[in-house]
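Office hours follow-up: a student asked to see two folded examples consecutively, so here they are.
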Amino acid sequence: MAHTLFESQVVELTPEVPAGGSVCFDPDNIRLEGSYSDQILAYRARRIWTETLERCFLLDLSHDFEIKVITNTSEGGFTLRCGFLTACARYAFWRLTNQQAPEAQYLIETGHIPHCESQHDEFACAPDLRPIEEAPIKPLVDEPNEGNLRASVKSLIERIKRRLRH
């Protein structure tokens, strides 16, 4: 009878959700874009990005920068988009994209990763910010209106021109 109390049981552990995500910058439109496979990751990154921009650069949300999560229905993922509106915000963007604020850059690159010991490798292997031209191709139109379509086509033409020059 005592033997049955201490029998080993098989316990199935559920795997952790991978914290995949990448952050790119668009120098033409002065914005950062993060691509995430999960809504939780996107909103976690949104919170960290907002805190980082407010603390490191003293920027105000909705005055200096705007940030939103966009659902990519075609890809099944989420895009976090941060636009820099004022001169101070554009300077912060320049510092982030030119390695002038490495601590803030690292926080933005790893904002989607949960802070726990099991995610150590994710923090160590987080990809650096890179220009959006080097990012995987994704749909340029996120909201169906004429202004966004024109801006997207114009941005696409500029990207093609830049690639043809190289």
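And the second, which I mentioned at the end of office hours:
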Amino acid sequence: MDARMWAVSAALVVVLSACASGGEEPQGLETEPDTPTSAPASSESPSPRSESTSDEGGASTEPTAEDSPAQSPGPHVRVFDEAGVTVIMPEEIAGNAAAEALDVFTNYNVEWYWSLREVELSERIRGLAAQPRIDRLKGSLEYQRQNGITYGGEVTIEPYVEGASENVVAIGFCLDASELIIIDDDGERPADGVEELPRTIGTAELNRTEVGWQVTDEEISEEEVC
């Protein structure tokens, strides 16, 4: 694996495997017919890091008990400065399963990009992802440690539900990594591959497990743009 491919894998959480990525729903997955709702904070996921929220295009403000991400109707923007992550939530989310999975997916990305900055796996991410995925994330962080690499800057994620059933949710998303930077002995520079492909399509699958919703798979295309 060349340096560019590995850097994209570490920074953008690409799982390079023989399976083709894409937007296809898992077999047997059907969209829930429930009335669209805004995403509630999942009781099964760890508490998210501090964030500010805003309506689409508005200025960020600290949420209050009366105007929290769990209660505000979408669309709205969730900003996690500590992790350098902005999430643009969909305007409508059909069904509780999809809403809960989106909340876990958001927290998972926040903890992962925080981990890339700290070169240390967040303890909070352990309840948000299945063990095989955790093992892959550990491998990316070990590469960073061995090569004196940290990440900075910001990413913006715009997720949407591709399909949902009671126990499986497929999420597609647009990842804007144009402001993601790599930091090493040579200083700061754009993360490898980002200049050629600043905005790219990704897919994720979440499964309901005995401990709650968990990210079980995630793929980010090296060709599809958004």
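Two things to take away from it. DSSP finds three helices and ten strands in the chain. The first helix runs from residue 3 to 12.
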